[in-house]
């Protein structure tokens, strides 16, 4: 029996993980859940899965949950805020933590979980970008696994199984291209609604905007460097609109191994939970005759400057990826709130990166401080009306 905690249970990854857990209840037990603000859905999940503990972000939601649980004789123990999230991440009853919290808020819970000896199924790319090498170092020290949940990194992980890393020529990360890879209009006039209209995947608002700017693929390139210990120069982005090939690995002999399936996040989530075994999946089998064609294009780094900024951050290393990711997170939320234009996202990230003095460190507190600084700087850019 695999006993799991889901950080971010009401989001896209969290709800799909629970869908898998419901179908595999003979081998998966849900021990803990956390939600940022979707109290209604969290209550439904608690009633269905009866976790030992649950966490919410706001004190008002915590009070509401306590009142609701007393009235309904719910035995779940409740926690609140970031401290509560760390408590949930280190539950004694659990052996695996699925981290799908959005943004850098997922870093400390992941570190706490690893310190407590939990295996990690990671869908929180910002935490890996921010301080991934420290995460992997700690995981090795504690002898726990960090398995990717993102479809691209799961694909790479599967393509690397049984192969020698020294024989890898390059990793090819596929990208759907989002809604704008063929867009010929004025990018500065792109609306929030347009940016959120992803052609393939149904995801949270932040990651959907990241997919529209291709920053998501830049974050994934850095994540791949960390997870697979591969230099950024060996990570290549390929636009693949059909989202059938989830990523590929080319070896030094010219062979390319790819992982293909219908686009359904339940497959990589399930693989992370059942690895090294495979079990029956509800995902529809791929019909190659109906797939018709598979297209591949090179990304336009000029048209999508966020991708260029991410590669630059990866090459500079140390605290720069943390700064890049934090500035992007703040800029995306400003765009979603209607306070800046779509093109201002890259401008804010670039200006914040240019202002940052890299700290050559391996101290986790320095990465956290760089994250805080970048957020403050990005917000000041708006206040000073410099864009």
Summed up, what is this model?
By secondary structure, this protein is an alpha/beta fold. Helices cover 47% and strands 15% of the residues.
Sequence-ordered SSE layout with sheet pairings:
Blueprint: E1 2-7, H1 12-23, E2 28-35, H2 39-49, E3 53-56, H3 59-71, E4 77-80, H4 81-89, E5 96-99, H5 107-115, E6 119-122, H6 125-142, E7 146-148, H7 151-160, E8 168-175, H8 192-195, H9 205-213, H10 215-228, E9 235-239, E10 245-251, E11 256-260, H11 266-274, H12 288-291, H13 305-316, H14 320-336, H15 344-355, H16 364-383
Helix pairs in contact: 4-5, 5-6, 6-10, 6-14, 7-10, 9-14, 10-13, 13-14, 13-15, 14-15, 14-16, 15-16
Write a structural description.
This protein has 387 residues and is an alpha/beta fold. 47% of the residues lie in helices and 15% in strands. The strands form 2 sheets. Strands 4-3-2-1-5-6-7 form a 7-stranded parallel β-sheet, with helices on both faces. It has a 4-stranded mixed β-sheet with strand order 9-8-10-11, covered by helices on one side. Helix 13 (305-316) packs parallel to helix 15 (344-355) and helix 15 packs across helix 16 (364-383). The longest helix is centred in the last third of the chain and has 20 residues, at 364-383. The chain is globular and about 55 Å long.
